[in-house]
Amino acid sequence: MLEVDRILDDAEKMDLLTSGKFFAYVYETGDEELKAVAMRALQRFYNKNMLDFTVYRSAIFFEKEVLGFSKKLLHGEDTCGTFTYGGTESIMLAVLSARNSFWKRRGKSEIPKVLAPYTIHPSFAKSAHYLGMDIKYFGVDGRLKADVESLKESIDERTALIAISAPNWPFGTLDPVKEIAEVAMDKKTLLHVDACLGGFILPFFEKLGEKVEPFDFRVEGYFDLRRSPQIRLRTKGGFGCAISFNGIEEGLDVRRRSKSRIHLCEPRSPFLAIRRSLGFCVCCSQVSGRRWVPKAF
Q: Is the whole model's pTM more than 0.85, yes or no?
């Protein structure tokens, strides 16, 4: 073990930081008790995976815990969703859903398109590339938010999905979700809001009395919304949630066997990372929701 420890110590020295204020990689809470709970949960369930819920039935329990907390926070109690392997998979599922929905409506003779401001997460371009779609970017306005007029000029019959952010990464501004949702409804186009950063922050700003522009499922016209627990729940790994009113289920043609979630073991399951450690989902469950939300909320 001494040799193993030496190798691990030497390897760890190559890293710039393992904790602390390290934007976009690690968001350290400074709460040692929280960290201890997360590590205890990870160690206890690291050798179980989410491949088959009939074998590891706790996978369903913990996924429901995470999704239940997430949906309640976003006023989406009537939605369905799934626990993903991070933001990129969540985005890819949304884009895949939109593509398949487009094919069902219009056939496969046209190449569907993702329409997004240039401040959108790069994974939308990656997803479009993987799935044989086009992506077209439109501009931002003087407030550094997605420009609604530019969107209106860009949308056409090939638009399968409009993607915006709450907030975006380059400037930290919230795109005008309500206005763009109205455009999406008028054009009968699916809408995805990337709330990777905002999903676990903005609801608490609102509870503290801050004015927060509407961005969650209270906005009419939603397709789906992504949140990434690795951003704020400190799960010791990258995992996320993809939550939808009906777009994920319909677009991916995946049946629900139990209320509010989509199972991985369907014959045509589209999920990218299935044999993943259950430990990270348990981490999310134990450091979120009723266990670790401050009493003031």
A: no
